[in-house]
Amino acid sequence: MPNIYTEKFKIRNYEADFNNRVKISSIFNYMQEAAASHANELKAGYHDLKNAGFYWVLSRAKISISNYLSADDYIVVETRPVGVKSLFALREFTFYNSANIKIGEAITSWLVVNHNTLRPVRPETIFDKRAEYAYEAVENDVPAKIPELAEGLFNRYIPVGYGDIDINCHVNNVKYIEFALDCFSEEHFLAGRIKSMQVNFLKESKFGDVLGISTSQLNPGNGIVYIEGLNQQNKTKVFQSCIEWTPANE
Fold first, then answer.
1. pLDDT tens column, 184-199
2. FRET pair for 175, CA 20 to 30 Å: which of 28, 42, 58, 201?
């Protein structure tokens, strides 16, 4: 079906961690690659929107993984747009191993932003009939808001540098995921694995900005950690994340 896109990725050595488990950040990269390729097929990709004076912004993403693959394994990413909820264009992902066994899933919400006004527009207003079937209004829920940190524990400062910036001249979405994951120790990753991770992207940050990263547990002991990044120049939150951990042997 044209509204379903599938792409197979080989997990490179540098895309797995010291446990030989594919990194969450690598999976997010696969997701973005598959979504971009599918959007191009639907005539709604980067260049299609740029030529019309718009661009995509990933607003929220939530991923759940039940089985982590290793380096040299293959991961199959299946993705499909699942309609519009208010200003959000929703896109789902399902992950399979090479034996076609499901290992995880994700839901993302995207905004279409006017390049001149920097304000979002309703996605269905800018797509022609070639893609309109993919952008009908639906009842699907977008990933939820993430609670504010309570008594957040400061972790570190991160200066935004060359390696963090993408073709849109701001910090790439996957970099925020890496910033969040770097809050945890080696022991934490040895003892547990991430069951689910949500990231809400709130504001862009650019070359030269400095981000302060803080963590919090609203209910210590339940395995859920909240993380946020604060732009130190203007004191605005640029991202929030919620990570659910489970023991490594489960």
1. 999 999 999 999 999 9
2. 42
